[in-house]
Amino acid sequence: MALLDEWYPPATADSWDAVGLVTGDPDAPVSKVLLAVDPAPAVAHEAAEWGADLLIVHHPLFLKAVHGVPATTPKGRTLATLTAAGCALLTAHTNADQAVGGVSEALATTLGLADQAPLRPAAAAPLDKLVVFVPVVDAERVRTAMTDAGGGRLGDYDSASFTSPGEGRFRPLAGASPAIGEVGRVEVVDELRVECVVPRGRRSHVVRAMLAAHPYEEPAWDLVELADAGLSATGTGREGTVAETSLAAFAARVAEALPATPAGIRYAGDPDRVVRRVAVCGGAGDFLLDELATRDDIDVYVTSDLRHHPAAEFLEKGGPALLDVPHWAAEWTWLPLVQSRLGRATGDGGLGDTVEARVSRIVTDPWRARI
């Protein structure tokens, strides 16, 4: 659970989603993990028959409220089968869609996209920058106070700050109690400019700590809100490049790369259209159509569950070609990636005994035939 939470943080899931541990004891040992897209009864039976201790799925079993789970219902059969077999169930849904190593990235990699970047970068955690001017001899104390209060944290680093020398000038007026200098006389002090980033939720803590450590009665300081540059490696969908090809040839490549389903794939656009830059979104991605309609640098958009009217209106706007792939097949590409990550994270140098992870080959796409 800790590994999955680290790779696909539950806090990044959409507010309507239901992710995390659905059933099972967090303290129970795990040696066999089955990976699947859907918590379907057939998948639960496979997990039980194989002796899996944990079933990790993409789609939630309980996305909407229920008032009972009798085994006469599909959800109840899934839960009853897993419970009887002592198999836990864990869901990583929208928290796995946007993540590095997530569903959209897996789909893009499967389709051969290079130079990948999020289509819609996730908003970075809001940051401020705190700048303070402090006498040289007191700079280390002030810097340490800011760091201890939560300032200067950048990714996997802490205690990050920048210091530059300068000259401070001031004249204490009547009523002042200057730490340096005398009332009525201009004072010149060798000072350092100390600055660091501050998580916005910690701004008041860091500012108070800085003021408490500063020797001056009235320190000079600035607090600046920083803009999000949109450079996050996480986010909705992915875009990237492929070697120049035609739309028809690219569609054939996609059909070959994805696991086969009866529904197959379909595309809309000129078969001879040149394809160089591709956008993808694992799962149902028509919510991105409006912003993609204005992207003249995207040649084709690959996603699932496109509806008639939105797709038709999108094509009328002259945007990218569309390639509609089966929902299950697109998201299945994530499972081997998780399997590989679990293998690397456990075993020698990892969590202990190697966890055996297996990808379910059961096709849970609802469509069974195409005539």
Keywords, separated by commas or semicolons:
single chain; 371 residues; alpha/beta; Udp-n-acetylmuramoylalanyl-d-glutamate--2,6- Diaminopimelate Ligase, Chain: A, domain 1; 3 domains; six-stranded mixed beta sheet; five-stranded mixed beta sheet; elongated; N-reg_PII/ATP_PRibTrfase_C; DUF34/NIF3_sf; metal-binding; DUF34/NIF3_bac
CATH superfamily of the largest domain: NIF3 (NGG1p interacting factor 3)-like
The rounded Rg comes to: 28 Å
Question: Domains counted in the coordinates: how many?
Answer: 3
Topology as a string of helices (H) and strands (E): HEEHEHEHHEEEHEEHEEEHEEHEHEHHE
- Major sheet: 6 strands, mixed
Principal-axes geometry comes out as: elongated
> What is the helix fraction of residues, given as a range?
25-40%
The CATH topology of the largest domain corresponds to: Udp-n-acetylmuramoylalanyl-d-glutamate--2,6- Diaminopimelate Ligase, Chain: A, domain 1
**Could you give the count of β-strands?**
17
Number of helices: 12
The class by helix and strand makeup works out as: alpha/beta
Distance between the first and last residues' Cα:
43 Å
Could you name the CATH class of the largest domain? Alpha Beta
Keywords: Metal-binding
Organism: Nocardioides bigeumensis
Family: Belongs to the GTP cyclohydrolase I type 2/NIF3 family.
Protein name: GTP cyclohydrolase 1 type 2 homolog
